[in-house]
Amino acid sequence: MKFNKRSLAIGLLMLACVVQADEDHHSNATTSKTFFSVNPQFSTGRPEFLSFYHTDRMMAREGGVKGSFEIVPYGGQSNNPEALGRYFFPFQRNYMTIAEGPAPVLGGLGNVIGFAGGSAAYQADKYDLLAQNFNIATTTNSYQSRIWIKPQQSFAGVGLNYRQSLQPHYPDKGYWFDFTLPVLWVKNKVNLHESITTSGEPLPGTNANMIAAFMNPEWKFGKIAPCGRSKTGVSDIEIRIGRDSVRHHTCRYGGFIGVVCPTGNRPHGHYLWEPIIGRNHHWGFIWGSSGTFFLWENEVGDSSIRLNIDLNNNYMFEGSEFRSFDLRDKSWSRYINMYADSMATTTIPGINVLTRKLKVRPRGLYQINSSWEFHWRENFIFEVGTQLFARQTESARLACPWVEGPGIAGTALPSTPTTPYNIATRTESNANMHTWDYGLISDDVDQSKTVFTNDCTGVGVNTYIFRPIKFEDLNIQSALHPTTLGHTIYGTFGWQDKKACYPWFVSIGASSQWGVDNSILYRWSAWGKVGVSV
Protein backbone atom coordinates (compact mmCIF):
# COMPACT_ATOMS: atom_id res chain seq x y z
CA MET A 1 0.00 0.00 0.00
CA LYS A 2 1.41 3.36 -1.08
CA PHE A 3 0.52 6.53 0.82
CA ASN A 4 1.54 10.06 -0.26
CA LYS A 5 1.47 12.35 2.79
CA ARG A 6 2.51 15.49 0.89
CA SER A 7 -0.36 15.22 -1.61
CA LEU A 8 -2.83 14.52 1.19
CA ALA A 9 -1.68 17.67 2.99
CA ILE A 10 -2.30 19.73 -0.16
CA GLY A 11 -5.81 18.31 -0.42
CA LEU A 12 -6.69 19.10 3.18
CA LEU A 13 -5.32 22.64 2.75
CA MET A 14 -7.55 23.24 -0.29
CA LEU A 15 -10.60 22.04 1.65
CA ALA A 16 -9.75 24.33 4.58
CA CYS A 17 -9.47 27.34 2.26
CA VAL A 18 -12.92 26.72 0.81
CA VAL A 19 -14.55 26.23 4.22
CA GLN A 20 -12.82 29.32 5.67
CA ALA A 21 -13.91 31.47 2.73
CA ASP A 22 -17.53 30.54 3.35
CA GLU A 23 -17.31 31.46 7.03
CA ASP A 24 -15.67 34.85 6.54
CA HIS A 25 -18.92 36.80 6.17
CA HIS A 26 -22.53 36.41 5.22
CA SER A 27 -24.85 39.15 4.05
CA ASN A 28 -27.40 40.05 1.42
CA ALA A 29 -26.16 43.59 0.91
CA THR A 30 -26.68 43.94 -2.85
CA THR A 31 -29.93 45.70 -3.73
CA SER A 32 -31.63 47.85 -6.40
CA LYS A 33 -29.49 46.55 -9.25
CA THR A 34 -30.60 46.59 -12.89
CA PHE A 35 -28.40 43.80 -14.25
CA PHE A 36 -27.36 40.35 -13.03
CA SER A 37 -24.38 38.64 -14.67
CA VAL A 38 -24.61 34.85 -14.37
CA ASN A 39 -21.39 32.84 -14.20
CA PRO A 40 -21.22 30.31 -17.07
CA GLN A 41 -23.30 27.15 -16.78
CA PHE A 42 -20.68 25.14 -18.71
CA SER A 43 -17.05 26.12 -19.25
CA THR A 44 -13.56 24.66 -18.90
CA GLY A 45 -13.42 25.78 -15.27
CA ARG A 46 -16.70 24.19 -14.17
CA PRO A 47 -17.12 20.76 -12.46
CA GLU A 48 -19.43 19.67 -15.29
CA PHE A 49 -16.42 19.89 -17.59
CA LEU A 50 -13.60 18.82 -15.28
CA SER A 51 -14.95 15.69 -13.60
CA PHE A 52 -13.15 12.54 -14.82
CA TYR A 53 -11.70 14.49 -17.75
CA HIS A 54 -8.06 15.49 -17.56
CA THR A 55 -5.21 15.32 -20.07
CA ASP A 56 -4.42 11.70 -19.18
CA ARG A 57 -7.57 10.73 -21.13
CA MET A 58 -6.06 11.81 -24.45
CA MET A 59 -3.02 9.56 -23.89
CA ALA A 60 -5.01 6.48 -22.88
CA ARG A 61 -5.33 4.65 -26.23
CA GLU A 62 -2.37 2.57 -27.31
CA GLY A 63 -1.43 3.35 -30.92
CA GLY A 64 -4.08 6.06 -31.21
CA VAL A 65 -3.80 9.68 -32.34
CA LYS A 66 -3.60 10.72 -28.68
CA GLY A 67 -6.85 12.64 -28.53
CA SER A 68 -10.04 12.53 -26.51
CA PHE A 69 -13.52 13.99 -26.55
CA GLU A 70 -16.44 14.29 -24.17
CA ILE A 71 -20.15 14.95 -24.65
CA VAL A 72 -21.93 16.40 -21.63
CA PRO A 73 -25.73 16.89 -21.52
CA TYR A 74 -26.47 19.17 -18.57
CA GLY A 75 -29.29 21.16 -17.00
CA GLY A 76 -30.41 22.84 -13.82
CA GLN A 77 -32.37 25.53 -12.10
CA SER A 78 -31.78 28.41 -9.72
CA ASN A 79 -33.04 28.44 -6.16
CA ASN A 80 -33.29 30.97 -3.30
CA PRO A 81 -35.50 33.39 -5.29
CA GLU A 82 -35.95 35.65 -2.27
CA ALA A 83 -32.26 36.58 -2.28
CA LEU A 84 -32.34 37.24 -6.02
CA GLY A 85 -35.47 39.34 -5.56
CA ARG A 86 -33.65 41.54 -3.05
CA TYR A 87 -30.89 42.00 -5.63
CA PHE A 88 -33.30 43.62 -8.11
CA PHE A 89 -35.76 45.33 -5.75
CA PRO A 90 -34.73 48.32 -3.60
CA PHE A 91 -34.64 48.64 0.18
CA GLN A 92 -33.27 45.09 0.75
CA ARG A 93 -36.69 43.55 0.13
CA ASN A 94 -38.27 41.40 -2.57
CA TYR A 95 -41.65 43.12 -2.14
CA MET A 96 -42.92 46.70 -2.35
CA THR A 97 -46.13 48.58 -1.59
CA ILE A 98 -47.56 50.77 -4.34
CA ALA A 99 -49.73 53.77 -3.44
CA GLU A 100 -51.61 56.32 -5.50
CA GLY A 101 -51.09 59.90 -4.36
CA PRO A 102 -53.74 62.60 -4.02
CA ALA A 103 -55.37 64.49 -6.87
CA PRO A 104 -54.36 68.09 -7.66
CA VAL A 105 -56.75 70.88 -6.68
CA LEU A 106 -56.94 73.49 -9.44
CA GLY A 107 -57.32 77.23 -9.00
CA GLY A 108 -59.45 79.63 -11.02
CA LEU A 109 -56.88 79.83 -13.83
CA GLY A 110 -56.49 76.08 -13.93
CA ASN A 111 -53.27 76.17 -11.93
CA VAL A 112 -52.48 73.68 -9.16
CA ILE A 113 -53.11 75.22 -5.76
CA GLY A 114 -53.05 72.05 -3.63
CA PHE A 115 -53.70 68.34 -3.35
CA ALA A 116 -56.42 66.22 -1.77
CA GLY A 117 -57.13 62.52 -1.27
CA GLY A 118 -54.77 59.62 -1.87
CA SER A 119 -54.80 55.93 -0.95
CA ALA A 120 -54.74 54.72 2.63
CA ALA A 121 -51.10 53.62 2.36
CA TYR A 122 -50.14 57.06 1.05
CA GLN A 123 -51.93 58.87 3.87
CA ALA A 124 -50.30 56.60 6.45
CA ASP A 125 -46.90 56.94 4.71
CA LYS A 126 -46.58 53.16 4.53
CA TYR A 127 -45.62 52.64 0.92
CA ASP A 128 -42.53 52.37 -1.28
CA LEU A 129 -43.43 53.54 -4.79
CA LEU A 130 -45.86 56.14 -6.11
CA ALA A 131 -48.30 54.74 -8.66
CA GLN A 132 -48.08 57.89 -10.82
CA ASN A 133 -44.64 56.88 -12.12
CA PHE A 134 -46.21 53.76 -13.61
CA ASN A 135 -49.09 55.59 -15.28
CA ILE A 136 -51.63 54.30 -12.76
CA ALA A 137 -54.43 56.73 -11.90
CA THR A 138 -58.00 56.10 -10.75
CA THR A 139 -61.12 58.21 -10.42
CA THR A 140 -60.94 57.92 -6.61
CA ASN A 141 -57.14 58.25 -6.21
CA SER A 142 -57.22 55.11 -4.10
CA TYR A 143 -55.12 52.52 -5.95
CA GLN A 144 -53.00 50.44 -3.61
CA SER A 145 -51.24 47.09 -4.01
CA ARG A 146 -48.25 45.00 -3.03
CA ILE A 147 -45.90 43.51 -5.61
CA TRP A 148 -43.20 40.89 -5.12
CA ILE A 149 -40.86 38.90 -7.33
CA LYS A 150 -39.34 35.43 -7.18
CA PRO A 151 -36.83 35.34 -10.04
CA GLN A 152 -35.82 31.95 -11.40
CA GLN A 153 -33.55 30.63 -14.12
CA SER A 154 -33.85 27.26 -15.86
CA PHE A 155 -31.23 25.98 -18.29
CA ALA A 156 -30.28 22.93 -20.33
CA GLY A 157 -27.70 22.20 -22.94
CA VAL A 158 -24.94 19.99 -24.32
CA GLY A 159 -21.24 20.67 -23.83
CA LEU A 160 -18.72 19.36 -26.36
CA ASN A 161 -14.95 19.21 -26.04
CA TYR A 162 -12.15 17.76 -28.15
CA ARG A 163 -8.55 17.62 -26.90
CA GLN A 164 -5.54 16.63 -29.00
CA SER A 165 -1.90 16.05 -28.13
CA LEU A 166 0.54 18.02 -30.28
CA GLN A 167 3.41 15.73 -29.31
CA PRO A 168 1.89 12.24 -29.34
CA HIS A 169 5.26 10.50 -29.20
CA TYR A 170 6.20 12.09 -25.87
CA PRO A 171 4.30 10.12 -23.21
CA ASP A 172 5.91 11.86 -20.20
CA LYS A 173 5.26 15.50 -21.25
CA GLY A 174 4.12 17.57 -24.19
CA TYR A 175 1.90 20.23 -25.71
CA TRP A 176 -1.81 19.88 -26.43
CA PHE A 177 -4.76 21.97 -27.59
CA ASP A 178 -8.52 21.73 -27.12
CA PHE A 179 -11.71 23.56 -27.95
CA THR A 180 -14.98 23.63 -26.04
CA LEU A 181 -18.38 24.37 -27.56
CA PRO A 182 -21.43 24.54 -25.24
CA VAL A 183 -24.95 24.71 -26.69
CA LEU A 184 -27.33 26.29 -24.19
CA TRP A 185 -31.03 26.98 -23.71
CA VAL A 186 -31.85 29.35 -20.86
CA LYS A 187 -35.09 30.81 -19.56
CA ASN A 188 -35.30 33.66 -17.05
CA LYS A 189 -38.53 34.45 -15.22
CA VAL A 190 -38.87 37.41 -12.87
CA ASN A 191 -42.16 35.95 -11.57
CA LEU A 192 -43.81 39.26 -10.76
CA HIS A 193 -46.88 38.92 -8.54
CA GLU A 194 -49.35 41.57 -7.39
CA SER A 195 -51.98 41.64 -4.67
CA ILE A 196 -54.33 44.60 -5.14
CA THR A 197 -55.74 46.09 -1.94
CA THR A 198 -57.80 48.88 -3.53
CA SER A 199 -58.26 49.18 -7.27
CA GLY A 200 -60.64 51.97 -8.25
CA GLU A 201 -61.76 52.83 -11.77
CA PRO A 202 -58.74 53.52 -14.03
CA LEU A 203 -58.72 56.83 -15.82
CA PRO A 204 -58.71 56.64 -19.63
CA GLY A 205 -55.27 55.87 -21.05
CA THR A 206 -53.81 54.60 -17.77
CA ASN A 207 -52.70 51.14 -16.61
CA ALA A 208 -55.05 48.98 -14.60
CA ASN A 209 -52.33 47.41 -12.43
CA MET A 210 -48.58 47.05 -11.99
CA ILE A 211 -48.28 43.88 -14.08
CA ALA A 212 -49.73 45.81 -17.01
CA ALA A 213 -47.54 48.81 -16.18
CA PHE A 214 -44.34 46.77 -16.52
CA MET A 215 -45.36 45.87 -20.07
CA ASN A 216 -46.16 49.47 -21.02
CA PRO A 217 -45.66 49.71 -24.81
CA GLU A 218 -44.18 53.18 -24.33
CA TRP A 219 -41.30 51.64 -22.39
CA LYS A 220 -38.40 50.70 -24.62
CA PHE A 221 -36.45 49.10 -21.79
CA GLY A 222 -36.81 47.64 -18.32
CA LYS A 223 -39.99 45.67 -18.91
CA ILE A 224 -40.99 42.57 -16.95
CA ALA A 225 -42.41 39.79 -19.11
CA PRO A 226 -45.21 37.90 -17.29
CA CYS A 227 -44.15 34.53 -18.71
CA GLY A 228 -40.41 35.10 -18.76
CA ARG A 229 -38.02 35.13 -21.69
CA SER A 230 -35.90 32.36 -23.19
CA LYS A 231 -32.89 32.13 -25.49
CA THR A 232 -31.06 29.32 -27.28
CA GLY A 233 -27.62 29.47 -28.83
CA VAL A 234 -23.96 28.56 -28.74
CA SER A 235 -22.38 29.80 -25.56
CA ASP A 236 -18.84 31.14 -25.71
CA ILE A 237 -16.31 28.92 -27.49
CA GLU A 238 -13.07 28.37 -25.60
CA ILE A 239 -9.84 27.50 -27.39
CA ARG A 240 -6.78 26.58 -25.34
CA ILE A 241 -3.22 25.45 -25.83
CA GLY A 242 -1.37 23.84 -22.94
CA ARG A 243 1.67 21.90 -21.89
CA ASP A 244 1.95 19.05 -19.44
CA SER A 245 5.37 19.42 -17.88
CA VAL A 246 5.01 16.19 -15.90
CA ARG A 247 3.14 13.00 -16.84
CA HIS A 248 3.97 10.26 -14.39
CA HIS A 249 2.11 7.31 -12.97
CA THR A 250 1.83 9.07 -9.60
CA CYS A 251 1.33 12.67 -10.68
CA ARG A 252 0.52 14.95 -13.59
CA TYR A 253 0.94 18.71 -13.82
CA GLY A 254 0.67 21.36 -16.52
CA GLY A 255 -0.59 24.78 -17.53
CA PHE A 256 -2.53 26.40 -20.35
CA ILE A 257 -3.55 29.66 -21.99
CA GLY A 258 -6.44 30.37 -24.33
CA VAL A 259 -9.13 32.70 -25.59
CA VAL A 260 -12.87 33.09 -25.06
CA CYS A 261 -14.64 33.69 -28.39
CA PRO A 262 -18.07 35.31 -27.85
CA THR A 263 -20.84 33.52 -29.71
CA GLY A 264 -23.76 34.33 -27.40
CA ASN A 265 -26.05 37.36 -27.30
CA ARG A 266 -25.32 40.86 -26.11
CA PRO A 267 -27.48 42.52 -23.38
CA HIS A 268 -29.96 45.03 -24.81
CA GLY A 269 -31.89 45.96 -21.66
CA HIS A 270 -35.37 45.55 -23.15
CA TYR A 271 -36.40 43.34 -20.21
CA LEU A 272 -35.31 43.08 -16.61
CA TRP A 273 -33.06 40.01 -16.22
CA GLU A 274 -33.03 39.14 -19.90
CA PRO A 275 -31.70 35.65 -20.79
CA ILE A 276 -28.03 35.72 -21.80
CA ILE A 277 -26.06 33.02 -23.59
CA GLY A 278 -22.39 33.17 -22.60
CA ARG A 279 -20.48 35.97 -20.90
CA ASN A 280 -22.44 38.98 -22.19
CA HIS A 281 -20.65 38.84 -25.57
CA HIS A 282 -17.14 39.78 -24.47
CA TRP A 283 -13.80 38.49 -25.74
CA GLY A 284 -11.58 37.09 -23.03
CA PHE A 285 -8.22 35.60 -22.15
CA ILE A 286 -7.86 32.29 -20.29
CA TRP A 287 -4.96 30.98 -18.24
CA GLY A 288 -4.53 28.38 -15.56
CA SER A 289 -2.99 25.11 -14.46
CA SER A 290 -4.05 21.60 -13.58
CA GLY A 291 -2.57 18.79 -11.56
CA THR A 292 -3.39 15.26 -10.39
CA PHE A 293 -1.58 13.67 -7.43
CA PHE A 294 -1.92 10.11 -6.18
CA LEU A 295 -2.73 9.99 -2.47
CA TRP A 296 -2.99 6.22 -2.17
CA GLU A 297 -2.78 3.10 -4.35
CA ASN A 298 -3.21 -0.55 -3.42
CA GLU A 299 -0.54 -3.17 -4.05
CA VAL A 300 -2.26 -4.55 -7.14
CA GLY A 301 -2.61 -1.09 -8.66
CA ASP A 302 -6.27 -1.37 -9.61
CA SER A 303 -7.61 0.91 -6.81
CA SER A 304 -6.43 4.41 -5.91
CA ILE A 305 -7.31 7.77 -4.42
CA ARG A 306 -6.25 10.88 -6.34
CA LEU A 307 -6.31 14.60 -5.70
CA ASN A 308 -7.14 16.93 -8.58
CA ILE A 309 -6.42 20.67 -8.37
CA ASP A 310 -7.49 22.93 -11.23
CA LEU A 311 -6.99 26.69 -11.49
CA ASN A 312 -8.96 28.41 -14.26
CA ASN A 313 -8.87 32.19 -14.71
CA ASN A 314 -10.57 34.47 -17.24
CA TYR A 315 -10.05 38.13 -17.98
CA MET A 316 -12.88 39.60 -20.04
CA PHE A 317 -12.23 42.66 -22.18
CA GLU A 318 -14.35 45.77 -22.66
CA GLY A 319 -17.45 45.56 -24.84
CA SER A 320 -20.68 47.41 -25.58
CA GLU A 321 -23.91 46.64 -23.75
CA PHE A 322 -27.20 48.45 -23.18
CA ARG A 323 -27.96 48.75 -19.47
CA SER A 324 -30.31 50.80 -17.30
CA PHE A 325 -29.18 52.78 -14.26
CA ASP A 326 -30.61 54.96 -11.49
CA LEU A 327 -29.90 58.47 -10.33
CA ARG A 328 -27.71 58.93 -7.29
CA ASP A 329 -29.47 58.35 -3.95
CA LYS A 330 -32.73 57.57 -5.76
CA SER A 331 -33.42 53.83 -5.82
CA TRP A 332 -35.43 52.69 -8.83
CA SER A 333 -35.47 56.24 -10.21
CA ARG A 334 -34.95 54.71 -13.65
CA TYR A 335 -38.78 54.48 -13.70
CA ILE A 336 -39.53 58.04 -12.58
CA ASN A 337 -41.49 60.39 -14.86
CA MET A 338 -39.36 62.88 -16.78
CA TYR A 339 -39.50 65.73 -19.27
CA ALA A 340 -37.27 65.31 -22.31
CA ASP A 341 -36.19 68.96 -22.15
CA SER A 342 -37.34 72.42 -21.04
CA MET A 343 -39.79 72.72 -23.94
CA ALA A 344 -41.54 69.37 -23.34
CA THR A 345 -45.31 69.31 -23.15
CA THR A 346 -45.73 65.71 -21.95
CA THR A 347 -43.84 63.40 -19.61
CA ILE A 348 -41.81 60.43 -20.81
CA PRO A 349 -40.84 57.20 -19.01
CA GLY A 350 -37.56 57.63 -17.18
CA ILE A 351 -36.47 54.14 -18.23
CA ASN A 352 -36.18 55.38 -21.83
CA VAL A 353 -33.80 58.13 -20.68
CA LEU A 354 -31.73 56.16 -18.17
CA THR A 355 -30.93 53.21 -20.43
CA ARG A 356 -27.82 53.84 -22.48
CA LYS A 357 -25.07 52.04 -24.31
CA LEU A 358 -22.21 51.43 -21.90
CA LYS A 359 -18.67 50.26 -22.44
CA VAL A 360 -18.57 47.48 -19.85
CA ARG A 361 -15.42 45.74 -18.65
CA PRO A 362 -16.25 42.52 -16.74
CA ARG A 363 -12.59 42.14 -15.66
CA GLY A 364 -11.38 39.03 -13.83
CA LEU A 365 -13.07 35.72 -13.06
CA TYR A 366 -11.15 33.19 -10.96
CA GLN A 367 -11.96 29.54 -10.17
CA ILE A 368 -10.19 27.03 -7.93
CA ASN A 369 -11.44 23.47 -8.17
CA SER A 370 -10.25 20.68 -5.90
CA SER A 371 -11.57 17.14 -5.97
CA TRP A 372 -10.91 13.71 -4.60
CA GLU A 373 -11.15 10.94 -7.18
CA PHE A 374 -11.64 7.29 -6.15
CA HIS A 375 -10.88 4.37 -8.48
CA TRP A 376 -11.94 0.87 -7.46
CA ARG A 377 -11.11 -2.35 -9.34
CA GLU A 378 -10.12 -0.35 -12.44
CA ASN A 379 -13.68 0.22 -13.61
CA PHE A 380 -15.69 2.03 -10.94
CA ILE A 381 -14.89 5.73 -10.42
CA PHE A 382 -16.26 8.24 -7.95
CA GLU A 383 -15.36 11.91 -7.48
CA VAL A 384 -16.35 14.52 -4.92
CA GLY A 385 -15.11 18.09 -5.03
CA THR A 386 -15.50 21.75 -4.22
CA GLN A 387 -15.00 24.92 -6.20
CA LEU A 388 -14.25 28.47 -5.07
CA PHE A 389 -15.49 31.07 -7.55
CA ALA A 390 -14.56 34.77 -7.46
CA ARG A 391 -15.28 37.62 -9.84
CA GLN A 392 -14.22 41.27 -9.76
CA THR A 393 -16.63 44.18 -9.76
CA GLU A 394 -17.49 45.30 -13.26
CA SER A 395 -16.45 48.75 -14.46
CA ALA A 396 -18.20 50.81 -17.12
CA ARG A 397 -18.40 54.17 -18.86
CA LEU A 398 -20.95 55.78 -21.14
CA ALA A 399 -20.33 54.94 -24.78
CA CYS A 400 -21.38 58.50 -25.72
CA PRO A 401 -21.11 61.69 -23.63
CA TRP A 402 -24.12 62.59 -21.51
CA VAL A 403 -26.04 65.47 -23.06
CA GLU A 404 -27.96 67.58 -20.54
CA GLY A 405 -31.63 67.91 -21.41
CA PRO A 406 -33.97 65.54 -19.52
CA GLY A 407 -35.18 66.42 -16.03
CA ILE A 408 -37.43 64.89 -13.36
CA ALA A 409 -41.01 66.01 -14.06
CA GLY A 410 -42.47 68.70 -11.84
CA THR A 411 -46.08 69.81 -11.43
CA ALA A 412 -46.53 72.16 -14.38
CA LEU A 413 -46.00 72.29 -18.14
CA PRO A 414 -44.91 75.28 -20.26
CA SER A 415 -47.16 78.29 -20.69
CA THR A 416 -49.93 78.07 -23.26
CA PRO A 417 -52.60 80.57 -24.36
CA THR A 418 -55.01 79.03 -21.86
CA THR A 419 -52.55 78.76 -18.97
CA PRO A 420 -50.31 81.84 -19.16
CA TYR A 421 -49.37 81.62 -15.48
CA ASN A 422 -46.71 78.97 -16.22
CA ILE A 423 -43.55 80.54 -17.59
CA ALA A 424 -41.54 77.35 -18.11
CA THR A 425 -41.63 73.58 -17.76
CA ARG A 426 -40.87 72.77 -14.13
CA THR A 427 -38.62 70.07 -12.79
CA GLU A 428 -38.55 68.59 -9.31
CA SER A 429 -35.00 67.36 -8.80
CA ASN A 430 -35.62 66.46 -5.13
CA ALA A 431 -38.34 63.97 -6.06
CA ASN A 432 -37.80 60.21 -5.89
CA MET A 433 -39.91 57.10 -6.33
CA HIS A 434 -41.42 57.58 -2.87
CA THR A 435 -41.85 61.36 -2.68
CA TRP A 436 -43.17 63.80 -5.25
CA ASP A 437 -44.70 67.28 -4.76
CA TYR A 438 -48.08 66.72 -3.06
CA GLY A 439 -47.18 69.59 -0.73
CA LEU A 440 -44.12 67.75 0.64
CA ILE A 441 -41.46 69.17 -1.67
CA SER A 442 -41.64 71.79 -4.38
CA ASP A 443 -40.66 72.31 -7.96
CA ASP A 444 -37.16 73.65 -8.57
CA VAL A 445 -36.87 77.40 -8.06
CA ASP A 446 -34.20 80.03 -8.54
CA GLN A 447 -33.79 81.33 -5.00
CA SER A 448 -31.84 84.35 -6.20
CA LYS A 449 -34.88 85.60 -8.15
CA THR A 450 -37.51 85.19 -5.44
CA VAL A 451 -39.58 88.38 -5.21
CA PHE A 452 -41.28 89.28 -1.93
CA THR A 453 -44.55 91.18 -1.86
CA ASN A 454 -44.88 94.56 -0.18
CA ASP A 455 -47.62 93.63 2.27
CA CYS A 456 -45.09 92.66 4.96
CA THR A 457 -46.35 89.08 5.01
CA GLY A 458 -43.01 87.74 3.89
CA VAL A 459 -44.66 85.67 1.15
CA GLY A 460 -42.39 85.30 -1.87
CA VAL A 461 -43.18 84.80 -5.53
CA ASN A 462 -41.01 81.96 -6.81
CA THR A 463 -39.27 81.89 -10.16
CA TYR A 464 -39.55 78.28 -11.29
CA ILE A 465 -36.76 76.78 -13.39
CA PHE A 466 -35.94 73.67 -15.37
CA ARG A 467 -33.02 71.81 -13.77
CA PRO A 468 -31.67 69.12 -16.14
CA ILE A 469 -30.04 65.91 -15.01
CA LYS A 470 -26.25 66.25 -15.01
CA PHE A 471 -23.65 63.55 -15.55
CA GLU A 472 -22.77 63.76 -11.85
CA ASP A 473 -26.36 62.74 -11.02
CA LEU A 474 -26.02 59.35 -12.75
CA ASN A 475 -25.47 56.22 -10.66
CA ILE A 476 -23.71 53.99 -13.18
CA GLN A 477 -22.83 51.57 -10.36
CA SER A 478 -26.48 50.52 -10.15
CA ALA A 479 -26.05 48.90 -13.59
CA LEU A 480 -22.92 46.91 -12.69
CA HIS A 481 -22.57 43.49 -11.12
CA PRO A 482 -20.62 43.70 -7.84
CA THR A 483 -17.76 41.55 -6.56
CA THR A 484 -18.87 37.94 -6.30
CA LEU A 485 -17.62 35.09 -4.14
CA GLY A 486 -19.31 31.72 -4.41
CA HIS A 487 -18.88 28.02 -3.78
CA THR A 488 -19.86 24.81 -5.47
CA ILE A 489 -19.89 21.31 -4.08
CA TYR A 490 -20.39 18.35 -6.38
CA GLY A 491 -20.29 14.61 -6.67
CA THR A 492 -20.19 12.26 -9.64
CA PHE A 493 -19.72 8.55 -10.26
CA GLY A 494 -19.28 6.42 -13.32
CA TRP A 495 -17.79 3.42 -15.08
CA GLN A 496 -14.75 3.22 -17.32
CA ASP A 497 -13.06 0.64 -19.54
CA LYS A 498 -9.43 1.55 -20.04
CA LYS A 499 -8.62 -1.72 -21.81
CA ALA A 500 -11.13 -1.31 -24.63
CA CYS A 501 -9.93 -0.63 -28.18
CA TYR A 502 -11.13 2.93 -27.65
CA PRO A 503 -10.98 3.55 -23.89
CA TRP A 504 -14.20 5.11 -22.70
CA PHE A 505 -16.09 6.23 -19.61
CA VAL A 506 -19.63 7.24 -18.68
CA SER A 507 -20.75 9.13 -15.60
CA ILE A 508 -23.51 11.16 -14.00
CA GLY A 509 -23.14 13.97 -11.49
CA ALA A 510 -24.79 16.83 -9.67
CA SER A 511 -23.69 20.06 -8.02
CA SER A 512 -25.00 22.83 -5.81
CA GLN A 513 -23.81 26.44 -5.99
CA TRP A 514 -24.25 29.11 -3.32
CA GLY A 515 -22.55 32.32 -2.25
CA VAL A 516 -21.64 34.55 0.65
CA ASP A 517 -24.29 37.06 -0.45
CA ASN A 518 -27.00 37.46 -3.09
CA SER A 519 -24.64 38.56 -5.89
CA ILE A 520 -24.23 34.97 -7.08
CA LEU A 521 -26.93 32.76 -8.54
CA TYR A 522 -27.86 29.99 -6.12
CA ARG A 523 -28.51 26.95 -8.32
CA TRP A 524 -28.33 23.22 -8.71
CA SER A 525 -27.27 21.38 -11.83
CA ALA A 526 -27.04 17.79 -13.03
CA TRP A 527 -25.24 16.21 -15.93
CA GLY A 528 -24.35 13.02 -17.72
CA LYS A 529 -21.08 12.44 -19.53
CA VAL A 530 -19.59 10.20 -22.19
CA GLY A 531 -15.88 10.35 -22.95
CA VAL A 532 -13.74 8.44 -25.44
CA SER A 533 -9.99 8.30 -26.08
CA VAL A 534 -8.97 8.10 -29.74
Written overview of the protein:
The structure is a single chain. The two termini are 32 Å apart. With 534 residues, the chain is mainly beta. The protein has helices at 5-23, 47-50, 81-88, 120-123, 210-213, 350-353; strands spanning 2-3, 67-78, 95-99, 103-106, 112-116, 129-130, 144-149, 152-165, 174-189, 192-198, 229-234, 237-247, 251-261, 284-297, 304-316, 319-324, 326-327, 337-339, 348-349, 355-361, 363-376, 380-391, 395-398, 407-408, 451-452, 460-461, 474-475, 484-497, 504-515, 523-533. A twelve-stranded antiparallel beta barrel has the order 2-8-9-12-13-14-15-21-22-28-29-30. Strands 6-3-7-10 form a four-stranded mixed sheet. It is built from six helices and 30 strands.
Which descriptors apply to this entry?
single chain; 534 residues; mainly beta; twelve-stranded antiparallel barrel; four-stranded mixed beta sheet; 6 helices; 30 strands
Estimate the helix proportion, in percent.
under 10%
Distance, first to last CA: 32 Å
What general form does the structure show? elongated
Find the count of extended strands (DSSP E, 2+ residues).
Answer: 30
Using only CA atoms, what is the Rg?
30 Å
Please summarize the sheet with the most strands.
Answer: 12 strands, antiparallel, barrel
Structural class: mainly beta
Mean pLDDT over all positions = 89
In spatial order, strands of the major sheet run 2-8-9-12-13-14-15-21-22-28-29-30
Uncertain parts: 6-27, 413-423
Q: What percentage of amino acids are in beta strands?
A: 35-45%
Q: List the quaternary state of the chains.
A: single chain
The DSSP helix count reads 6
